[in-house]
Design brief:
- The protein is elongated.
- The N and C termini lie far apart (94 Å).
- It has a two-stranded antiparallel ribbon.
- The mean pLDDT is 88.
- Strand 1 and strand 2 (20-21) form a beta hairpin.
- The chain is 54% helix and 2% strand.
- By secondary structure, it is mainly α.
- It has six helices and two strands.
Amino acid sequence: MAKPAPESQPAVEADEQGTTTGKGRPTPTRKEREAANLRPLVSNDRKAANREARAKYNEARERARIGMANGEERYLPQRDKGPQRRYVRDYVDARFSVGELMIPVMLLVIVLTIIPDPMIAIVSMAVLWGFFILAVLDCVIAGLVVTKRLKAKFGEDKVEKVRWYTAMRCLQMRPMRLPKPQVKRGQYPA
């Protein structure tokens, strides 16, 4: 004679004091769990999904743009990362560079060359070349000074090559620099 199948035990058991133990429901089967996790890979409403993805992407880009402008290390491109690059940026932003005036002087020369007088055109080109030489000298001097300060601060053997980085930062107009200047003029880094 076959034994009767034992009845399944309830998921909740009561102990002597009458308190219940257990989770209060039966364990879901694998089929039930897979059905609960099942969702389409692509939404049925493609336009809404694209709109949501674009909004999420734009929000991340805006956060990265603001972070980069503020000089947050994790949002900076590789060329701007590190304590030595931050020191160079702070040093260059604290000083006045002749190269900052390069774009306005070039625009002025373009306007002056429109004037039909050849003497004005010759003088304006000579002034432009003189200004260009001054800007290059200023960049070279800034690079040498920054390298010397970096050696004093970080050690002779740990200094990165930063002269080109210094020169490029010196040639940019202060409002157009990215990351934005974090120090005021005259606030040289320690």
